[in-house]
Specification:
Length: about 400
């Protein structure tokens, strides 16, 4: 069975769903194919920190209403080490920018509801098997649904199918360059049915390992601890997780509230970049093209930035026939991607306990923490990256590096 659309979007994560919404807003057609069920993608617990630019784009496509009602605006973070907390007043340091705490799960639910309301196709349990004819302007996605094979013909394919998808692998090996780094640790995350013990996120460095106190609402906490890269979740009873959280987040006069654990999982940490992000009529976006360790809270935000730039390029292409935006897509994204790669690496190495580190390395780490907590310039650099650099084309060139 065969069908045609302007843009075939592979994957209904935040990248694919948002791209569909951006295109629809400009009267462009797309079909979104998702391998999993609606229930599955709406239940997957992942990111929680939205940059100001991400918040703005979600509002612009008309899915900001519940986020603005239920999300929590944070204007700072705490860095905790040696039992003391140090506040980084991000808004003060960035001319009033802030982040929003709102779960990726909720964004996915809002975008799915929006898509279904528009009546544009969003197909669950459709597994893309190949993307083909990429050197032409008539590429095709072949996918299977319930044991039947289908073809989706289009002008453009958006590969929004995450790290384990099929799209990146369709770029010939002699064209695709990959940069990768594995870290000697992973994150164990829990969602707990208890109000947060803090007003803003706490990132803690501790000799037993990193810990992070985040939240999803004023009633639900999200907490993470550094664990071994090959650790088994079966080794971690709820009580063992809480004990480690108490130890690593400890601070004089501060208490951590415990509550029932609603979800518990381990995520490996890696850095990964694939270049270029475009091959012929295939455009990669989000985790399909890059992965960052989660410490800088950048993965979801990068996915949103990619599809915002891709959306602009596609509107221009289908509107006026100019492919200028599409031509610069890969380079424009990758500038931002590498900035996020560096920031995520910086936050990760500053805050984790690296079993391979020597005493010299540990002293450097401590010096970096001291510097960020005592120098306004160092804190402002962290804050500027954390709240997110502006998305617009003009500001990408504002410092003359574009
Ligand atoms: P995905 O969300 O992975 O979506 C890809 C979709 O494609 C999936 O639904 C998948 O089922 C589908 N798919 C795959 N293959 C196929 C196929 N062959 N055919 C059809 N469909 C297919 N980022 C942040 O910015 N801030 C944070 O605070 C943060 N915290 C995180 C915490 C954790 C524990 C984890 C795991 C991640 C975190 N991230 C964070 C990263 C963030 O979740 C990802 O970067 C984000 O999900 C990327 O979105 P995406 O749409 O590119 O990919
Ligand atoms: C969360 C995840 C992150 O990676 C981070 O840096 C901060 C918060 C979260 O899931 O809430």
């Amino acid at each position: 069975m065969s069908e045609r659309t302007q843009v075939a979007i592979v994957g209904a994560g935040p990248a694919g769903l948002l791209l569909g919404a951006l295109l629809h807003r400009h009267g462009l057609e797309s079909v979104i194919l998702e391998a999993r069920s609606r229930e599955y993608i709406e239940a997957r617990i992942r990111a929680g920190v939205l940059e100001q630019g991400t918040v703005d784009v979600l509002r612009e496509v008309g899915v900001g209403e519940r986020m603005d009602r239920e999300g929590l605006v944070h204007s700072g973070i705490y860095l905790r080490f040696d039992g003391s907390s140090h506040h980084i007043p991000m808004s003060e340091l960035t001319g009033g920018r802030s982040v929003m705490i709102y779960g990726q799960t909720e964004i996915v639910k809002d975008l799915v509801a929006h898509r279904l309301q528009t009546g544009m196709p969003l197909r669950f349990e459709c597994h893309a098997v190949t993307v083909d004819r990429l050197s032409s302007d008539q590429p095709v996605v072949r996918y299977s649904q319930g044991g039947t094979d289908h073809e989706l013909e289009c002008n453009i394919i958006a590969g929004c199918d995450g790290f384990h998808g099929v799209c990146r692998g369709a770029i010939p090996a002699d064209v695709l360059h990959v940069w990768e780094r594995e870290y000697p640790f992973a994150w164990l995350g829990i969602l707990a049915d208890v109000g947060p013990s803090t007003d803003e996120l706490i990132y803690a460095q501790h000799e037993q390992g990193f810990a992070l106190h985040s939240m999803r609402s004023l009633k639900v906490s999200r907490l993470y601890i550094q664990v071994e890269p090959d650790d088994d979740i079966a080794n971690w009873s709820d009580q063992r997780v809480w004990d480690q959280l108490h130890a690593r987040l400890a601070s004089e006069g501060w208490e951590l509230n415990e509550g029932p654990v609603l979800e518990k999982s381990i995520t490996p940490m890696r850095s990964f970049v694939a270049e270029p992000m475009r091959y012929g009529s295939l455009f990669l976006a989000g985790d399909a093209a890059h992965i960052v360790p989660p410490t800088g809270a950048k993965g979801l935000n990068l996915a949103v930035a990619d599809v915002t730039m891709l959306g602009e390029g596609l509107v221009e292409y289908f509107g006026s026939g100019s492919d200028a935006g599409l031509q610069e897509y890969s380079d424009r994204c990758l500038r931002r991607v590498w900035r996020a790669q560096h920031f995520s690496w910086f936050m990760t190495t500053m805050l984790h306990t690296n079993p391979r580190d020597d005493d010299y390395g540990r002293r450097l780490q401590r010096s970096q923490l001291d510097y960020v907590c005592s120098s306004q310039a160092a804190a402002a650099s962290l804050a500027e990256n954390y709240v997110g650099l502006p998305l617009t084309r003009a500001s990408a060139t504002a410092l003359g590096n574009g």
